[in-house]
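Hi everyone, sorry if this is the wrong subforum. Our group has a chain we'd like a structural model of before ordering constructs, and none of us has done structure prediction before. Sequence below.
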Amino acid sequence: MIILALNCGSSSVKYQLFDWEKKVIVAKGMVERVIVGDSFIEHDVPGQPSYRLEEDCPDHRAAIDLVIRTVTDSGHGVIDSVNQISAVGHRVVHGGEKFTCSVLINEQVLDAVKDVQHLAPLHNPPNIDGIEAAQSLMPTVPHVAIFDTAFHQTMPEYAYLYPVPYEWYEKHGVRRYGFHGTSHLYVSKRAAAILGKPASECNIVTMHIGNGVSHCAIKNGVSVDTTMGLTPLEGAVMGTRCGDIDPAIPAFMMIKENLSAKEIDSILNKKSGILGITGRYTDRRDVIEHANAGDHRCQLALEVEAYRLRKYIGSFMAAVGKLDAVVFTAGVGEMGAAIREKAIENLEHIGIILDRERNAGAMTRKRESLITTDDSPVKVFVIPTDEELVFTEDVVAILNGSYTDHMHFEYSFAKQDFVRK
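Answer:
Right subforum, don't worry. Here is the predicted structure as tokens:
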């Protein structure tokens, strides 16, 4: 059984082919610059040189068609025909309140995703385009939606409601939804397995830190709070997003700089965060390099980010009670040893005792690492995320009728003997 996982962004299509019987990735890659011009595909097969082809993709249908032609190509492909693909799993960023788990896509599901696209105007429209394009190219194959928001639908009402007019929630769905759900699901299940405890008995804070950043408070195995809100703009400092700020700032700056609502929204999403502070960089590697060379604004950006990370660990400890573990994941979380150290140093008073040597050695996306001392009451792990494996297992379980939801479904990676390939 071959499962194709698709993640369609506004100008990209990320894909992975997974052989379920052999439990291995057979190919993965990305089509970049979709719609914007000068499109190209980068295709990787384990054990083979990377393959790149430039080809114009004016829309997502053309991009997915290019993916299909590449994976079935006689020279660079890994399957003989598209008919070997058993199902397609689609990442959908926003499912609103309707979806609490992954679902088989039908007309009603697609309509429901379209109904909430105003809540994620940058993400849901390309997700929808990708689903419709893939359905047209593979009409006989089952298609499954995996929602970023589903994992967080266990949050209690007092955690997801904002202190704004209640009618905004009733009429427009204004509430906290949260994102990066599949990543938080994966690493929290892995942390529980490493701890040797059922997930339902674990209290964990997961910290997904990439260009986008979100944290999750997990009590007894389920999400009870998270940093991103109605949109992915709220919460931690991110590469280009501001995260938490005084809500009066946008109106204040609109008056001062004569900005429109669209312009201020763009600034807060695309020109703030690490980029806003440094004025030049979003990649934390660049920030760390220049901070070490004495650049004050890069030093400041690292301090601001680490301080916010530390505050969220503390606040989420208050939300979940006695904490078992903190988990760092995603690009910066997995590779940013300096940022991890700044975020958790001097937290012995809350049970976190950093092992600096272990932390410095945890600079790989290929293994799971403990970065606290053996006697640290609260363990801190670096766990490479694997959202595509969540996609694949959800899809397979839906096809064979064994899927329920993440609280009851037994994932392979939740087992102590699981080995990440």
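For your construct planning: The chain is about 35% helix and 20% strand. The longest helix spans residues 296-320.
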